[in-house]
């Protein structure tokens, strides 16, 4: 069974017959059949130690800021480079796990990501990357 965690207490009540209470910031095992419902309530997939899983791999808990490459104006025009750098910043925000860096849907706020990448990032870009990462994790 996969583990999930959330920044707040969450109760996942499923029509499939499962009820799971997830304590804030505590890795909790959930049946795979209700993983989508837990994620819809703002939970993220993690390992038993609480390290966030992205793209089937566990995010490094303490990424250094210099692990996020600097993008020039020209580099930012390349969608692949832009998404790659923003995805690394998102992983760092999730690994840091500061409540103030997330919105009510447990998606990193644009300002939290912008502090790491050094330029403004839209909420739509962040939400799209988070959605892609969650889909790849399933």
Write the layout of secondary structure elements.
Layout: E1 3-5, E2 10-13, E3 19-22, E4 28-29, H1 35-40, E5 44-46, E6 53-54, E7 57-58, H2 73-76, H3 79-96, H4 110-117, H5 123-137
Antiparallel strand pairs: 1-4, 1-5, 2-3, 6-7
Helix pairs in contact: 3-4, 3-5
Descriptive tags:
7 strands, 3-stranded antiparallel sheet, two-stranded antiparallel sheet, 37% helix, 138 residues, 14% strand, alpha+beta, 5 helices
Explain how this protein is built:
The chain is α+β, with helices and mostly antiparallel strands and about 140 residues long. It has five helices and seven strands; from the N terminus they run ββββαβββαααα. The protein has helices at about 35-40, 75, 80-95, 110-115, 125-135, and strands spanning about 5, 10-15, 20, 30, 45, 55, 55-60. It has a three-stranded antiparallel β-sheet. The two termini are about 10 Å apart. The longest helix has 18 residues, at about 80-95. Helix 3 (about 80-95) crosses helix 4 and helix 3 crosses helix 5. A hairpin with a 5-residue loop joins strand 2 (about 10-15) and strand 3 (about 20).
């Amino acid at each position: 069974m996969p583990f999930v965690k959330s920044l707040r207490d969450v109760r996942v009540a499923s029509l499939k017959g499962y009820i799971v209470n997830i304590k804030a910031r505590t890795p909790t095992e959930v049946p795979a059949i209700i993983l989508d419902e837990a994620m819809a309530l703002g939970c993220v997939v993690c390992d038993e130690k609480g390290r966030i899983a992205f793209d089937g791999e566990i995010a490094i808990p303490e990424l250094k800021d210099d692990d996020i490459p600097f993008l020039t104006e020209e580099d930012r025009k390349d969608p692949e480079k832009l998404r790659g750098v923003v995805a690394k910043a998102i992983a760092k925000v999730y690994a840091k796990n500061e409540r103030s860096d997330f919105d009510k849907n447990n998606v990193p706020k644009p300002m939290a990501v912008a502090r790491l990448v050094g330029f403004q990032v839209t909420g739509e870009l962040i939400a799209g990357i988070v959605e892609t990462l969650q889909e790849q994790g399933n």
